[in-house]
Fold:
Amino acid sequence: MTPKSNQPAHQSRGDSQPSARKITQLRDAIAAHTAKNSDGSAFIDRELEEAKTPVRKKALGLLNYRARSTQELRGKLLDAEFEAEVIDEVIADLEHSELLNDEKFAHEWVHQRHQRRGKTRLVLDHELADKGIAPGIRAQALEQIDDDDEAALAETLARKKAKKVKRMEDRADYDKELRKIVGVLARRGFGQGMALGIARQALDKRCDELGTEVR
Structure:
């Protein structure tokens, strides 16, 4: 007689082993688990990270040299012939880490160039627009400069230019020097009316210093 199996009658020989379907499910579950960080987020796409590495290095080098707007940085990276999609990923990372911030850039640009280079609101607004800064951000940054600041700046520039005048013998000399000072102020972005009034004051004072009466 054939000996009876010790297995229960309802269990077949293969039932003690996991089915192919269960193995697949377990494998998928393990893969999903290992593809998660402790907080449940997916691991970083390694291929994308490898593509971003040289772009990030270039971007950080440019930002280390000087601050830049988002549009300016993107343009430099495109000029370096990196892929646009990868550039966008790197820029998003830099914005998230506050290494790239158009509001901070605009605020510092206005502060530095007004204080050190005597730029007016009009000129600074054009410069920021050229760098792709949005109108609202430009307006907010330019609030650092008021009318009194601009008038004081114009007076300083006019006095500096007038100081270079060594002699004025007649009205023609006076008018010539006046046009020069007005031109300097106009090129800095000051309005014609303000420029003329402040230039005249500075030149009249210089006439008094030179002891000449040609006005």
User: Anything to note?
Assistant: Confidence is low (pLDDT under 50) at residues 1-18. The chain has three domains: 47-97, 102-143, 147-210. Residues 102-143 form one domain. Residues 156 and 202 are 9 Å apart (CA to CA).
